[in-house]
């Protein structure tokens, strides 16, 4: 309710404060006898040199709207009682009318680019990449719901010195047949071996640098090996994306920019931004280390490729906003990148945002690929699905499409576990916890949705015109949540924070379950159709919230 009430207050105040400024000031009165919403007039009083109480009275006199039941000016506060009847009717009718469009913004023509997932070729898809994939996908769905046209880009790590290492390792120890049978696992094995051996044999790194240089210069044999590594890896990644239900508009990764870097390096030089430092070229930056553009041997770097990518995307998509969904450990890289673009004179560097996230921990420890100590995402998903299957066998033997539902629940559990806390938090990975049907989990929200679906079926719900009366004290918290959904959709985009949607879905599920525990829905009284329509609204919004997160909502489980 805060958003529409803030707008009304803003008008009553002749826009002395904007609606969003007011929204930040709005409180919930300490005692519910005082009202549902309180607006304190103290800061405004200072600004206008008036007493808080006189402002409060003035505003209270002007506020009138269907959604407001009563307004009082008390000790410098505007205390507002909302009209529950009015809000109930308006919110539920809006959901019934708009269904999965409820909370959607009108489509604008603007683009939003989301750079996410972006695994490294020839390495396993790590849990860190899972985080990027899941967060990026949710942000993409949320941006679409906010009316943007979204470009989903997988900026594959398919270029860089590691391919020099891999080519050297392959020539030394590669087993073609083994790689064909199980590409990523085998390539990882020789990659790890490379690092082990290079610890004592310095010449190996030298060779790798030379080998990458050859690759960048288009050496055919190296290119053929690279392409083989890339194709084989992509095939393995595709299976994971399919399981997660994720798609991309572009797989233009680092290699894609290989022929686009000279232009950027040239532009940097022209603009006088390139400085030589021990044979390498860098852009000097204030308050942070310089950004390395080319190495002594002329080879380009990760940052150079990201620069070229930013220029290319600007031309191609002219996005209103670009999100880079990448772990927090790369925050310096993105600060440098955006700074360099700003120094080149491009004010659109302001529209670029690093959407950082914390680490995935296992038993409180970091998971790393370098040493081969890696938890494979594919294994984790398989285990989650297996657990879901066992749960179904226990609880709902007769369920149709067990396989499909187990997949939806297992995958949903993993995704929800990732998204339910703010992305900057590290998350600990406990399969048991994330699968708990009664915890703060994906399966809990899915289960609530499925329960409502079966309720609607048993009650033979069909849509028909209806007028809502008060649905009782346990329904009111549910209605308030439904009312908030559109503003949560908006905020989760503005703050690039899918956890707001996840938390919302938990609250909504919990509030509805409480209502349901206190209400007999399936009795043939005069309110039955009203109660079923209400339940239908909750199911529709739960389903859409899960969809935004990238989670399916089966009708039975
Ligand atoms: N491949 C990189 C990694 O795994 C992430 C790339 C992120 N995107 C970007 N435009 N730099 O660390």
TrEMBL record:
Domain DALR anticodon binding, residue spans: 445-557
Compartments where found: Cytoplasm
One Gene Ontology MF term: ATP binding
Main localization, broad class: cytoplasm
Residue ranges of domain Arginyl tRNA synthetase N-terminal in the record: 3-82
Gene3D superfamilies membership: Arginyl tRNA synthetase N-terminal domain (3.30.1360.70), HUPs (3.40.50.620), Isoleucyl-tRNA Synthetase, Domain 1 (1.10.730.10)
Enzyme class: ligase
Listed name of the protein: Arginine--tRNA ligase
Catalytically driven reaction(s): tRNA(Arg) + L-arginine + ATP = L-arginyl-tRNA(Arg) + AMP + diphosphate
GO biological process terms, semicolon-separated: arginyl-tRNA aminoacylation
Pfam families, per database record: Arg_tRNA_synt_N, DALR_1, tRNA-synt_1d
Coiled-coil annotated spans: 378-405
Keyword Transmembrane helix in record: no
EC annotation from Swiss-Prot or TrEMBL: 6.1.1.19
Protein keywords: Aminoacyl-tRNA synthetase, ATP-binding, Coiled coil, Cytoplasm, Ligase, Nucleotide-binding, Protein biosynthesis
Family: Belongs to the class-I aminoacyl-tRNA synthetase family.
CC per GO annotation: cytoplasm
InterPro entries: Arg-tRNA-ligase, Arg-tRNA-synth_N, Arg-tRNA-synth_N_sf, ArgRS_core, DALR_anticod-bd, Rossmann-like_a/b/a_fold, tRNAsynth_Ia_anticodon-bd
Top-rank lineage group of the source organism: Bacteria
């Amino acid at each position: 309710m805060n958003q529409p009430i803030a707008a009304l207050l803003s008008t009553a105040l002749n826009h002395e404060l904007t609606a969003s400024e007011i929204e930040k000031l709005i409180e919930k009165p300490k005692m519910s006898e005082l009202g549902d919403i309180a607006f304190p007039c103290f800061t405004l009083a200072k600004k206008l040199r008036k007493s808080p109480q006189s402002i409060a009275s003035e505003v209270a006199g002007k506020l009138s709207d269907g959604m407001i039941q009563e307004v009082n000016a008390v000790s410098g506060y505007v205390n507002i009682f909302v009209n529950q009847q009015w809000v109930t009717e308006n919110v539920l009718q809006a959901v019934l009318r708009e269904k999965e469009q409820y909370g959607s913004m009108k489509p604008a023509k603007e683009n939003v680019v989301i750079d996410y997932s972006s695994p490294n070729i020839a390495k396993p898809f790590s849990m860190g990449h899972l985080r990027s994939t899941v967060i990026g996908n949710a942000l993409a769905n949320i941006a679409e719901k906010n009316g943007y046209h979204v470009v989903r880009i997988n900026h594959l790590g398919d270029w860089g010195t590691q391919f020099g290492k891999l080519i050297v390792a392959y020539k030394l120890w590669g087993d073609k047949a083994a790689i064909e049978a199980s590409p990523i696992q085998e390539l990882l094995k020789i990659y790890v071996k490379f690092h082990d051996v290079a610890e004592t044999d310095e010449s190996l790194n030298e060779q790798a640098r030379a080998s990458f240089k050859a690759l960048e210069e288009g050496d055919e044999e190296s290119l053929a090996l690279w392409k083989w590594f890339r194709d084989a890896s992509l095939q393995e990644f595709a299976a994971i994306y399919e399981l997660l239900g994720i798609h991309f508009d572009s797989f233009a990764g680092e290699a894609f920019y290989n022929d686009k870097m000279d232009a950027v390096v040239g532009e940097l030089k022209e603009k006088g931004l390139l400085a030589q430092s021990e044979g390498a070229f860098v852009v000097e930056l204030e308050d942070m280390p310089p950004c390395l553009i080319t190495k002594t041997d002329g080879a380009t770097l990760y940052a150079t490729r990201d620069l070229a990518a930013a220029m290319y995307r600007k031309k191609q998509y002219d996005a209103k906003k670009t999100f880079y969904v990448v772990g927090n450990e790369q925050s310096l890289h993105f600060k440098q990148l955006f700074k360099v673009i700003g120094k080149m004179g491009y004010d659109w560097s302001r529209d670029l945002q690093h959407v950082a996230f914390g680490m995935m921990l296992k038993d409180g420890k970091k998971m790393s690929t370098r040493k081969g100590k890696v938890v494979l995402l594919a294994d984790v998903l398989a285990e989650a699905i297996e657990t879901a299957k066992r749960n179904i066998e226990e609880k709902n033997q007769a369920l149709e499409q067990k396989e499909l539902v187990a997949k939806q629940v297992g995958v949903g559990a993993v995704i929800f576990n990732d998204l339910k806390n703010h992305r900057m938090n590290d998350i600990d990975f406990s399969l048991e916890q994330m699968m708990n049907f009664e915890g703060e989990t994906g399966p809990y929200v899915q289960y609530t949705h499925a329960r409502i679906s079966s309720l609607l079926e048993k009650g033979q719900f069909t849509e028909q015109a209806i007028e809502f009366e008060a649905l009782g004290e346990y329904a009111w918290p549910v209605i308030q949540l439904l009312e908030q959904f559109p503003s949560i959709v908006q905020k989760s985009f503005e703050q690039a924070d899918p956890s707001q949607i996840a938390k919302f879905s938990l609250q909504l599920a919990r509030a509805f379950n409480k209502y349901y525990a206190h209400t007999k829905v399936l009795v043939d009284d005069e309110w039955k159709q009203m109660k079923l329509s209400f339940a239908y609204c909750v199911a529709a919004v739960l389903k859409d919230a899960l969809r935004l997160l990238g989670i399916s909502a089966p009708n039975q489980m």
